[in-house]
Amino acid sequence: MRKVETLRKRYLALLSEKKEMERKIERQELEIAQLEKELAQLRIDNEFLRVAHTVPDNPEAVGQLKKQVTKMVRDIDRCIKQLNA
Q1: How far is it, in rounded angstroms, from Cα 48 to Cα 54?
Q2: Would you list the domain boundaries of the chain?
Q3: What is the C-alpha to C-alpha distance for residues 28 and 48, in angstroms, rounded to an integer?
Q4: How far is CA 11 from the centre of its chain?
Q5: pLDDT tens-digit profile of 30-64?
Q6: Contact predicate 5/13, CB 8 Å
Q7: What angle do CA 19, 21, 23 make, to 5 degrees?
Q8: Percent of the chain clearing pLDDT 70 (strictly above)
Q9: Given this model, what pLDDT does residue 50 score?
Q10: Does residue 36 contact residue 30 with C-beta atoms inside 8 Å?
Q11: Could you give the CA distance from residue 22 to residue 17 in angstroms, rounded to a whole number?
Q12: What is the C-alpha to C-alpha distance for residues 26 and 34, in angstroms, rounded to an integer?
């Protein structure tokens, strides 16, 4: 009987530990998701600043810059859709 009781206690302890680990994993997954969002935003900000500091004076280059900005906006929209999915 003692062995059964010992095994039962050990089982309950392991079950409790498993549940705690599952909660920890869930918290870490939420933190990872938040950090990924932040990273994506920082990359967008970085790209925007990089482009903003290279604004050219000639009309041909301005047209190219508009195309880059349009592409960035599409990328941002795509990222937002992925985050909301």
Answers
A1: 10
A2: 2-84
A3: 30
A4: 36
A5: 999 999 999 999 998 888 888 777 666 677 777 78
A6: no
A7: 70
A8: 95
A9: 81
A10: no
A11: 9
A12: 12
Residues 72, 52: Cα–Cα separation, whole Å: 12
* Residue 81, token pair as written in the block: 């859709």
The token pair at 51 is 């482009």
List Cα–Cα distances, 67 to 26, 40, 75, in angstroms: 41, 21, 12
Q: What distances in angstroms separate CA 84 from CA 38, 40, 63, 76, one per listed residue?
A: 15, 14, 32, 12
Q: What is the largest CA-CA distance in the chain?
A: 89
**CB of 49 within 8 A of CB of 25?**
no
Amino acid, single-letter form, for residue 59: P
